[in-house]
């Protein structure tokens, strides 16, 4: 049984915060692989300045190419939008009926609003959540604090965001240290987020 951690996001673009976290999980937990699931349309996010799915995929693909345990996933590209994670999980179980066991990777910020996710109770009944620390406002709801399906894991906190990268880049500032080299190269060549 291959243990796969699913890391959902818009990755607009992927930055080193995402990459460091995914690598940390693969190195420090019993996850064999982490899949970056590129979400076409996140339920609570606006579509403004969102690059085409395939361009976001391409950047993840190039960034993880040299890391054999990290993979990009297009699984949500043909699913209805906005992309509810429960639907994707059902689809994944159909596509990989044997040999894989999936867990969800989630930042503590998302856990705080997790009760707004579609069918979150069903997700918790069927999947383990690996929750890593983030700096964020608010509190984790009491019923999720000691939930048996929720596992806290240690990981470095790197508080940068794609929004910050896009904003600074648009202002003509240097963002290269925040991006994997391949992401920067593609973004620059394609004139993204200008
Ligand atoms: N610096 C970070 N460290 C760890 N996890 C992060 C970091 N930034 C975002 N994440 C998490 O990674 C997942 C995918 O992130 P997403 O693509 O939404 O990036 P983002 O940087 O938050 O984007 P945006 O600024 O465009 O909203 C989300 O679950 C998000 O909480
Ligand atoms: O299923 C839901 O209801 C749901 C609600 C919000 C977010 N998600 C998933 O979580 C991912 C990260 O969310 P966000 O808002 O931090 O970008 C996003 O790409 C979706 O895959 C899922």
From TrEMBL:
Record-annotated Cytidyltransferase-like domain positions: 6-167
Protein's GO biological process: NAD+ biosynthetic process
Entry's EC annotation: 2.7.7.18
GO MF entries: ATP binding; nicotinate-nucleotide adenylyltransferase activity
Pathway: Cofactor biosynthesis; NAD(+) biosynthesis; deamido-NAD(+) from nicotinate D-ribonucleotide: step 1/1
Keywords tagged on the record: ATP-binding, NAD, Nucleotide-binding, Nucleotidyltransferase, Pyridine nucleotide biosynthesis, Transferase
Keyword Transmembrane helix listed: no
Class of the enzyme per the UniProt entry, highest EC level: transferase
Top-rank lineage group of the source organism: Bacteria
Catalytic activity: nicotinate beta-D-ribonucleotide + ATP + H(+) = deamido-NAD(+) + diphosphate
Family the entry assigns: Belongs to the NadD family.
Main function: Catalyzes the reversible adenylation of nicotinate mononucleotide (NaMN) to nicotinic acid adenine dinucleotide (NaAD).
PANTHER family in the record: NICOTINATE-NUCLEOTIDE ADENYLYLTRANSFERASE-RELATED, PHOSPHOPANTETHEINE ADENYLYLTRANSFERASE
Name listed for the protein in its UniProt record: Probable nicotinate-nucleotide adenylyltransferase
